[in-house]
Amino acid sequence: MEKGEIQERVIKVVSNVLKVDPSMVEPDSNFVFDLGAESTQSVQLVAAFEEEFNVEMDNEAALSIQTVGGAVDFITRYVQ
Amino acid sequence: MTAKPPAQPRPPHPLESLFCPRSIAVLGVTPTPGTVPNDIFRNILTGGFTGVLYPVAPGKRSISAVPAYRYVLDIPGTIDLAVIVFPANVVDKAIEQCAAKGVKGVIVISAGFRETGADGLARERRLRDVCREHDIQLIGPNCLGLINTDPAVALNASFARKMPDHGRIAFLSQSGALCTAVLDYARGQQIGFSKFVSFGNKAGVSEVDLLEYLHADEQTAVILLYLEELSSGRALIEAARRVTRGANAKPILAIKSGRTPQGAHAASSHTGSLAGEDAVCDAVFREAGIIRVTSIEELFNSAILLADQPMPRGDRLAIVTNAGGPGVMATDAAVHAGLQIARFNGDTTQRLKAALPATANIQNPVDVIGDARADRYQAALDAVLADDNVDQALVILTPQSMTDIEDIARTVCRVADSTDKPLTCSFMGACDVADGIALLHARHIPHYILPEWACRAMADVQRVCRWRQSELETVQLPQAAATLPKYLLNGDEGYLSEDRCLHVLQAYGLPVSDHRLCTCEDEAAAFAASIGFPVTLRLVSPQVIHKSEFGGVALNLRDESAVRAAYRDMLARASAHPDRPTVTGVIVRRMIPAGHEVILGAKRDHVFGPVLMFGLGGVFVEILRDVTFALAPVGPAAARQMIRQIKAAGILEGARGQPPADLDAVCDCLCRLGRLVHDCPRIEEVDINPLIVAPAGQGAAVADVRIRLGPADRAAVE
Fold first, then answer.
1. Which of A31, B213, B385, B516 is paired with B91 by a 20 to 30 Å CA distance?
2. Res B407 pLDDT > 60
3. Considering the entire predicted model, what is its pTM?
4. What are the structural domain ranges in chain B?
5. DSSP single-letter state for residue B447
6. What dihedral angle (degrees, nearest 10) is formed by the CA atoms of B581, B585, B586, B587?
7. Residue of A nearest to B29 (CA)
8. Which DSSP string do the residues of B314-351 spell out, in sequence order?
9. Which DSSP state fits B587?
10. Residue B150 contacts residue B20 (beta carbons within 8 Å)
11. Is A36 in contact with B60 (Cβ distance < 8 A)?
């Protein structure tokens, strides 16, 4: 899967889970500071990424990711 | 003649942006009720804040129907105060935007800093550095927040459940969790606050800054402090002294946890400081004029009396009661707490006799008898409060079937309005007396369930009065004292030679017997003859620390030939010794007659600065640890208190027919030693052991002294 496609799908998931306009979501967006994620939404995000990409991620490592770009890189490791 | 320029308005206090903001942004608000970020925002909103409030909530259109902003930078207009509730790992981003926005005050509620370990500490330091760089006043992190009940501001920037009532008590706490309990307790007691601050990790604003601010705050009459550590000991003392004395004096009451030996040990091993020693903490508070109390209950019992009643002119108490037993209990408690039971003058007893039934007790405590109604209380209170021998009154009531409790409460309120003497009440019970107590609360007349509590509170007020009356006396120093700190700049770190020690003590007027460092036998013999016999000889050599073991001390030399023999013997020992110590000379001193041996010490603590120690010599110090501490410098009153506080003080005061020792001389030495270590930052430690004290009026003299200097850059650093 191309990284561009991964990024597109990550942005869509983030936009859906955090209920923010997709135009707000950029690679360097911080989930909390820029997109207003609450602590419980971090868990929801990880679950939604797993479902979207049909992978099972290391939860502890996944929860430590703070930005959209970080999530794209992390997921890329699983899907390639 | 030039016209006087118009007075410039006083610039606002730097902490004004925290306490009296006109606009607030809450950064990191979420829409979920019951979370800290949401509750903080709602508390400000529903608390009646009189300024403008903005939620910063990325991705949200509004919070509680208030339009939200993605970033603080997006908000139009200026922001005085930012309250940050973002998680710790993005607080630095929030602070940087606040700095760019020109925000002047920041409260960081978020936890996850110093208290979590090395990473958290690094985060906290970055936070502190940004705030310093941009001149931002920072409260927190890891705190409950701040409350200002002033109706002109009405700010509850905390996650406490309710806005407290407006009052004249300010509460500062290092513990956030304690704050919520205190607020709830105070609410139950109908106690209001002027300001309420949880300062958490105090990365920016400390208790010292807050004391300075509250000193100037017109709405605050009493300051309460809860501390877990005394990390800014010296600055706290200096600030507290300014707050608690002078024209605008305000009492400070404090609880410092860690009173037990276990807690003290933990603190001591943690900080490597005398801070862990509870006796030192007591000394800090005493020297700073802070009244240390032992419980939250005592804290508020005393605070309401200080906040709501006039200060008494003295410690003489009148008790008016309708129950003999509680009157006697109150008398015991008052005497035990150090109050005086007032002796009425003749006019008062005549008035009481005329107004009360024959069975009443017209002496203090005045018993108006169990069937008393409001008129008897009125007559008794009017009479005792008019008496010049009475400084304050305690009203006790037990609820009999004929007792008109509310009428009596109203009477007490009227009496309070017409007197300038403090009144306290104890309406004993719970249910029957509740309405009467409510009337007293409404008029801010301090009420205590038990008379003993009232007495304890009045005793704390006396401590405040005594502190205000005591002056910071100073001792007259010789001229040489002025140049001593410079003199001490020279020389290596470590122990000073004995001749330099004596020079240092003499420069501050401490009693050192006539002496000279002699470098030949003839000089020693001639000097001994000039000062009179008997004399002592002491070898001076940088390599010989333990003189006695070396044979470098000769006592009670009664003539010139004995001096010469001792001198030759000492030098012979030195030259025969395998280490070949360098001999600087021999000190010839006039022998000090026997007397009481006491120890005076001083040590520079890294938290409190110079601390003085006093104790009796020998077993009293080494085994019984019977010593007292005080922060240097001390005045004669504090020095006298140090002496009285050792358990064996009676020995010095003249036990078993022995003449009392010259305690004035000891006081003088403590004052001078205190000034010495205060003025000379290079002095790390002084040990005068012993100071030999003659009978009263005959003085004292230093027999032996050791002084240790700190690093050479110490003087420059301080």
1. B213
2. yes
3. 0.75
4. 314-469, 514-591, 596-717
5. B
6. -130
7. A36
8. SSEEEEEES-HHHHHHHHHHHHHTTPEEPPPPHHHHHH
9. E
10. yes
11. yes
How far apart are the C-alpha atoms of B415 and B320, rounded to whole Å?
A: 13
Lowest-pLDDT choice from B343-357, B434-448, B495-509, B620-634: B620-634
Contacts within 8 Å (CB) and 24+ apart, B211-216 = B211/B172, B211/B236, B211/B239, B211/B240, B211/B243, B211/B252, B212/B239, B212/B242, B212/B243, B213/B13, B213/B15, B213/B19, B214/B170, B214/B172, B214/B243, B214/B250, B215/B242, B215/B243, B215/B248, B215/B250, B216/B13, B216/B248
Q: How far is A3 from chain B (nearest CA, A)?
A: 26
Residue B135, helix vs strand vs coil = coil
Q: Which of 548-567 (B) contact A at CB < 8 A?
A: none
> Is A35 in Cβ contact with B30 (below 8 Å)?
no
Cβ separation B90–A19 shorter than 8 A: no
What's the N-to-C CA distance of chain B in angstroms? Answer: 45
> Rounded CA gap, B98 and B56, in Å?
12
**In A, which residues are within 8 Å of B72 by CB distance?**
none
**CATH node for B596-717:** 3.30.470.20
CA atoms within 13 A on the CB side of B567: 25
Residue of B nearest to A64 (CA): B89
Which residues pair with residue B25 across a beta bridge?
B54, B82
B30 CB neighbours in chain A (<8 A) are 36, 38
Q: What CATH number labels B314-469? A: 3.40.50.261
Q: Is B59 on the interface with A (CB under 8 A)?
A: yes
Closest alpha carbon to B447 in B390, B487, B408, B481: B408
The per-residue pLDDT for range B95-111, each reduced to its tens digit, is 999 999 999 999 999 99
Residue B627 CB neighbours (<10 A): 18
Distance separating alpha carbons of residues B101 and B76, to the nearest angstrom:
10
Closest CA–CA distance from residue A66 to any residue of chain B (Å):
9
B161: number of Cβ within 10 Å: 12
> Running DSSP on this structure, what letter comes out for residue B164?
P
Mode of pairing for the β-strands spanning B627-631 and B609-616? antiparallel
Cβ separation A20–B59 shorter than 8 A? yes
Residue B697 DSSP symbol: T
* Min Cα separation B59/chain A (Å): 5
State the Cα–Cα distance between residues B381 and B146, nearest whole angstrom: 42
Which residues from B are below 8 Å from A24, CB to CB?
A: 58-59, 70
List CB contacts (< 8 A) between A18 and chain B: 59
CB atoms within 10 A of CB B400: 14
Determine whether the interchain pair A36/B89 forms a contact, defined as Cβ–Cβ distance below 8 Å.
no
Residue length, chain B? Answer: 718
Q: Spell out the domains of chain A, with CATH numbers in brackets.
A: 3-79 (1.10.1200.10)
Residue B231 burial (10 A CB sphere; 0-12, 13-18, 19+): middle
> Does B412 contact chain A (CB < 8 Å)?
no
* Residue B34 contacts A where some CB pair is shorter than 8 Å: no
Is residue B62 within 8 angstroms of chain A, CB to CB? no
What stretch of H or E contains B269?
Answer: helix B261-271
CATH fold for domain B514-591: Dna Ligase; domain 1 (3.30.1490)
Query: Which site among B26, B27, B29, B30 would you substitute to test the A interface, given the most A Cβ atoms closer than 10 Å to its Cβ?
Result: B30
Which residues does A contribute to its contact with B (CB < 8 Å)? 18-20, 24, 30, 32-36, 38-39, 66
Domains B314-469 and B514-591 in one fold: no
- Taking only the tens place, the pLDDT of each residue in B554-602 is 999 999 999 999 999 999 988 888 888 889 999 999 998 888 999 999 9
Q: Mean pLDDT across the stretch A6-32? A: 95
Phi-psi region of B659 (alpha: psi -120 to 50; beta: other; left: phi over 0): beta
Distance CA B123, CA B117 (A): 10
